[in-house]
Design goal:
One of its GO terms (cellular component) is plasma membrane. The protein is of the alpha/beta class. It is built from three helices and four strands.
């Protein structure tokens, strides 16, 4: 009895489904990249905004310079608790420069009345940044009641 070789036809069927796992991986990587890069794209003035849950300044820190704007748009500069008379913008810049010569690391805070125009606060920030060279200011707020 002779054995004839068995000839098998290895028919391959074309695969009719798409493997989506690599596409999901690529989409997750893109999602992470956009989540990280989106906050970096925001434009505006660099200001350290106070948070509601922030701790108050400690007593051993040097008193900050507080540039205030009242409801009628007058400028004031106070160091710690001492307040001064109304100033012109160039006088305020000269006083801040004098204080910064004595202590270059003094913190500068802006205390704007809630009814003052937003334009006045921005002008004061630009003035402090351009004329004095302050790159970071704090905005004073009252805690919510």
């Amino acid at each position: 009895m002779s054995h004839s070789p068995i000839i098998r036809k290895n028919k391959r069927r074309p695969m009719a489904e798409i493997n989506v796992v690599p596409y999901i991986d690529v989409m997750l990587v893109l999602l992470v990249i956009f989540m990280i890069s989106a906050p970096l794209i925001t434009a505006g003035i660099n200001v350290d905004l106070p948070e509601v849950s922030a701790e108050p300044m400690s007593a051993n820190e040097e008193p900050p310079l507080i540039a205030s704007i009242d409801a009628s748009g007058n400028y004031y500069l106070s160091v710690g608790d001492s307040s001064d008379q109304a100033l012109e913008p160039h006088e305020l810049v000269e006083l801040v420069l004098a204080h910064r010569k004595l202590n270059p690391n003094v913190q500068v805070l802006i205390n704007g009345d809630r009814n003052v125009a937003y334009d006045k606060v921005v002008q004061l920030m630009v003035l402090l940044q351009g004329e004095v060279g302050i790159d970071s200011v704090g905005l004073m707020t009252d805690p919510e009641s």
